[in-house]
Amino acid sequence: KDVAEECEALGEGVEGDPKENGDGEDQRPGVGEGEVKSRARSAEGESHFVRESGRFLRDRLDLRPKAALKGDVDLVTECDLRAQEILAGRLSAAFPDHGILAEENLARPGRSEYRWVLDPLDGTTNFAHTFPIFSVSAALERSGRAVLGLVYDPMRDELFTLGVSQASAES
Q1: Between 20 and 30 A from 24 (CA), which of 34, 42, 101, 152?
Q2: CB under 8 Å to 24, separation ≥6 — which residues?
Q3: Burial of 148 by CB count in 10 Å (0-12 exposed, 13-18 middle, 19+ buried)?
Q4: How far apart are CA 53 and CA 45, in angstroms?
Q5: Phi-psi domain of 16 (left: phi exceeds 0; alpha: psi -120 through 50; beta: other)
């Protein structure tokens, strides 16, 4: 399934979240899945936001980015921060009402029940040592429950998705 289809499936099969009241009327609160699907389709192509961030990282792998400590042992690079800017910017443009929580000290509250949880460079230590095993990860929560996951491996150009109504898929 593509990201738009995953967005359409949000809420299906979730206990206590009926889609209709029997009269065909949508009973879900907040932003409807049709609107989420429409915005996903308009986001410059399906999953463009994670792919663009991943391509940015792939193109800079051999530049040996400077790494700094962001704790006792965790690394952060300028590429982590820029990849986060790209990813959060694309998501904010496509889904302006959604909140965003990202690894590199970014927390934006949203006006809807949806929130994106991001790791713009999952595998910073590998990346900092120019080892080509890393990914861009994004998850969508609805009222605190994960409903969609995206993991993009830019070195192999593979996107993995997981939605509430499926086990897993690769595209």
Answers
A1: 42
A2: none
A3: buried
A4: 14
A5: left
* Alpha carbons 15 and 155: distance in angstroms, whole number: 38
Residue stretches of the chain with pLDDT short of 70: 1-46, 71, 73, 164-171
Structure tokens at 146: 């994960």
pLDDT tens-digit series, residues 90-102: 899 888 999 999 9
Q: What is the pLDDT of residues 29-47, one digit of tens each?
A: 444 555 555 444 433 344 7
Question: In whole angstroms, what is the distance from residue 105 CA to residue 108 CA?
Answer: 10
Angstrom CA distances, 108 to 68, 91, 141, stand at: 24, 12, 14
